[in-house]
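Researcher: I need the complex structure. Ligand is dinuclear copper ion. Inputs:
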Amino acid sequence: MSRRVRRAVIRVGAVAALAAVGAGCLPAPATEEAQQVTALYGVFVAIAAVIALVVFGLATWAIVRHRQRPGDPLPEQTHGSLRLELVWTGIPVLIILGLFAGTLAVLGRVDAHDPSPGVELRVEAFRWGWTFSYPPSGVSVTGVSPDGPEAVLPVGEPIKIVVASHDVIHAFFVPVFLFKRDVIPGRESTFDVTIDEPGTYRGQCAEFCGIYHSRMPFSIRAVSRAEFDQWLASQPAASAAPGSAAPGSPEPVP
Ligand code: CUA
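Model: Output:
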């Protein structure tokens, strides 16, 4: 293999590895907030990749180029270099400050509350299921079926989600939202999401809450505003999914 071909192979391999890391570590973002997280994550990965290339490249070069050969004299002995040490301390400090500022900015946007959200969804967690309700309408969906209950939400507008727990600590987690929020008894927690694309997104309780923790899935079905209004109007107030149980009811049979 000629040197040029080898170099090309290494370059293509490095780009493919980076793409695999970038694509494999995060699911495709489904909300505006998740896009911000993905963008920040991309910056982190890019900086880490550049640092890895420099560090591994220099280490490999030093090991190969300056390895000991028979009969080599003892190299010149030096004690540190103030300028070099300032540089290799200063650059990481600047990088960390930059990443810290970027993280604060994204956190601020992800945690921001829209003053006039399009919909409010109230999420109540209990062992072992969820109740989704839409406060002004009186519509509520509870389910402990194998797939869990489904919350229908409109796309393209801020949705205020309020989470509360009836018993122990649960966690509201939708992987493609790149967002997880603990659901703590006695304390309501609020956040906004703006879903970009229609679709059904799986969610799951993400805090170990007891023996049927794994049976707390749910899904979010994102639809157009018109479909959402139609769906909401078609729901009887305080509806319940088949096979559902009210909060605080006995544990589901395995
Ligand atoms: Cu609820 Cu785990």
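Model: Summary of the prediction. DSSP finds four helices and ten strands in the chain.
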